[in-house]
Amino acid sequence: MVLRAFFIGRAAAQALYEQVGNVVGETLATLGRWDAQQREVLRQQIQEILERAAREEQQVTQAKSLVKGQKPLDLQTTIDELRAEMARLRTELKRYRQQN
Predict the structure, then answer these.
(1) What are the angstrom distances between the C-alpha of 49 and each of 43, 45, 58?
(2) Any idea what DSSP says for residue 1?
(3) 0.70 cut: is pTM over it?
(4) Between vectors from CA 68 to CA 64 and to CA 70, what angle results, nearest 5°?
(5) Residues 13-68: pLDDT tens digits?
(6) Chain centre to alpha carbon of residue 97
(7) What is the DSSP letter of 69?
(8) Alpha-carbon distance 47 to 52, whole Å?
(9) Neighbouring C-beta atoms of residue 62, cutoff 10 Å
């Protein structure tokens, strides 16, 4: 009887050990999949950030190249030039009206 109880206990322990092993294995596999998914999400986010930064850098570089080709703007000079152009157009308009 004692011998039989020993073997029953031993078999129960082995079965329990196998079940715990399976649960631990499944848990580690799930954790591994989750970790891989998180790494992929992080990689995609980093890729998107780098692409966005490259686009913005390209836009700034293009804008700088356009500005380099132009003269620096003096606001008062621009206003004076526009006023002179308006005066010239008024004069031409008066002349046109007088001809007709």
Answers:
(1) 10, 6, 14
(2) -
(3) no
(4) 120
(5) 999 999 999 999 999 999 999 999 999 999 999 999 999 999 998 888 877 766 55
(6) 60
(7) T
(8) 9
(9) 10
